[in-house]
Amino acid sequence: MTPKQQYYENIAATLIKNLARRQMEGFYCPDKESAVKKALELMPEGASVAWGGSMTLAETGLLSAVKAGPYQVIDRDSAKTPEERRALYGQICCADFFLMSTNAITLEGELVNVDGTANRVAFLCFGPQEVIILAGMNKLVKDVAAGYDRARNMAAPPNTLRLNRKTPCAATGRCGDCHTPESICCQTVITRRSSIPGRIKVILIGEELGF
In this structure, are strands 111-115 and 104-106 parallel, antiparallel, or unpaired? Predict the structure, then answer.
């Protein structure tokens, strides 16, 4: 085990305790393969599963595993019309599991997320029976302020490029605090505690993943 791997394991143990204080359940996996295995173990066969936009979910291979697995998949991207998409969002709200990552997670166990249309953070806050979050250790920050800065200056710029949005950060790589029509920084959600014990499960991964 390298010093960095040992560091990740040590700090994850502390973070998992802090998540428990906030009624969230934490797990640590040293790599993306074991993280996918853990996530699949948490979801029984036949469960309905949906997800929010996330490079981490794609990079780990979890989305592919879910689509090929024994689950009722609710894929919002399968909608062909705005009406179909709206109907799918209704199904997602009642899903057994919602998968996502987080823009940042503080040392004290708070989740920091910034969204455009808020479809991702909405289901984090309410709806699906359980939420499973996969997060690389690169998402770890000192506090909420650092998490907000990370979301705006490290996550948003590459995401605007991925989504082909015309925003100042897409051009400069830094947040311009914009009010442009294509801004993806419209809603900020700080999850300091889960009101339902164990509803939110955080799988920390000892790799750098996502934006």
Answer: antiparallel
Sheet holding 111-115: strands in order across? 140-141, 104-106, 111-115, 187-191
C-beta of residue 106 within 8 angstroms of C-beta of residue 177: no
Phi, psi dihedral angles at 33 (to 5 degrees): -65, -45
pLDDT along the chain (211 residues), means of 10: 94 98 98 98 98 96 98 94 94 98 98 95 98 98 98 96 95 95 96 98 97 94
Name 201's bridge partners: 25, 132
**Could you give the CA distance from residue 119 to residue 103 in angstroms, rounded to a whole number?**
15
Helical spans, DSSP H, in 94-185:
119-125, 144-150, 156-162, 168-172
